[in-house]
Amino acid sequence: MRILGIDYGDRTLGLAMTDPMGVTAQPFASYRLKARDEDNRLYFRDLVERYQIGTIVVGIPLRMDGSSGTRADKTRAFALWLEAAVQRPVVFWDERLTTREALAVLGRQNIRGESRKGLKDQVAAAIILSAYIESRRESHDP
After folding, report:
1. Where are the domains positioned within the chain?
2. pTM of the shown model
3. Which end of the chain has fewer beta carbons closer than 10 Å to its terminal beta carbon, N or C?
4. pLDDT of residue 88
5. pLDDT for 63-94, tens place per residue?
6. Cβ contacts of residue 64 below 8 Å, gap of 6+?
7. Domain covering 2-140 in this structure, CATH number
């Protein structure tokens, strides 16, 4: 089963997904949250079904000192809603500095302007998901 990674934003979510074996993470799409919860629920249910998602990793925006703030609270509320909507477990992953890292990746690729803006959240989601996958690998190594 695949793993879905999410970089949560107030309006737009960056999405990344693993390959079917759960080994690598790739940017997947950006999703603009709709005003109606039912529209969002249908989108994520279809995504989970179509791509056989088993687990969802949501980046949690902690402060640099590791404490939570309002953004983290909003992210947790979204994650709880999502878990109930799609009936899949949601795991939180520290996303500190992932946006900065995503911008650096896009800069090295010479991606500018609107293309950069559209890809930033997807690349951040892929970075979050990659870190989660790596931590699972390390915890399973003898």
Report:
1. 2-140
2. 0.85
3. C
4. 97
5. 777 777 888 899 999 999 999 999 999 999 98
6. 96
7. 3.30.420.140
